[in-house]
Amino acid sequence: MALKKRSSKKEDAQAVAKLTEAEQDLLWHVEHGYELETDSLGADPVLRSLENDEVIRPASANRNTVKALQERGLIAQAKSKDPLKIAWRARPN
User: Is the pTM of this model over 0.90?
Assistant: First the structure.
């Protein structure tokens, strides 16, 4: 049985440093009071403010941007009020 290696903070910092500008922008918003929402296929990303329900459509983000953040373990699915939407939250360090 192979053991899974835990990533160190140094490795995490390197992964964040390699993010594209669109990925960095989405991650910053998710960490600062916005919830990332996509359709059920992971496309059409929208940032919704948790304070006042303001909606921002990031022009440079798409399905691949969200997928890259998920694959790096920086965001995870959360419960959504709408069954046709996926809510994403930042993963705690």
Answer: no
